[in-house]
Amino acid sequence: MKKWLRKLKSDFRNYLIFRSGRSLRREVVARDFSIICNNCWAGRIYQLLDLPYTTPFTGLFLFADDYIKLLSKLRENLALPLRFVTVSRHLAAPNPAADNPACRIPPATSISSGAPPTTPAGSNPPIPYSIGSNPSIPYSIGSNPSYPIGVLGDDIEIHFLHYHSEQEAREKWERRVERINWDRLFISFSERDLCTPQHIAQFDALEFPRKVCFTANEYPDLSSTVWLKNYKGQGEVGDLYRDYKVVMKQFDIARWLNS
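The structure corresponding to this sequence follows.
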């Protein structure tokens, strides 16, 4: 019975998403493109357009520092082999799914041993921090979530938030990397997950012709930013996968993808 109810809710949710994308599907002429993103927002755009994923950046997130490193040499970094670790180097990190019960991270433990990760010898314990003016954002301090954590190169972490195993994460990642259309690349960034004004300035300076950064704060001197006023005073933007309509009301997605 519960399984049937879950399927019913899922089907209804998918119907609402499909319905929400009707006008977008009419307006978007270009269909063969790839969106590089630091969270699940890209996946939602493909769902609204009823298109297959031509990007590996779905169902996952990257912390801001890792994302900027990835973008600095995007093609070279995406060609690197994906390996997995059981402990994130981001020991003091906000829980990116805490405001979404559907993907809430359970009490964190080391994936392989089931034991809480320890602070490396000779280093200081992680220190809690607050983002902007919202210190109430939930944190996962000194612990790791029970989903696969991939790494490219030395330290570019990819948190496969909605994947159940390393095998699933690897297979989908490698298959979707092969689908990337390098001739029609779109880059998005969101002011969240340890993002600082410096990261946003670095993103703005990157030489991608089609890029956008969704922010909770106003950056009038940066050309790639879109200020989502719904998050004014919150320090960072919310879950744009769930709150996709917030973006649709303040950013012309069709015009961007048709450019």
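Residues 84 and 150 are 4 Å apart (CA to CA).
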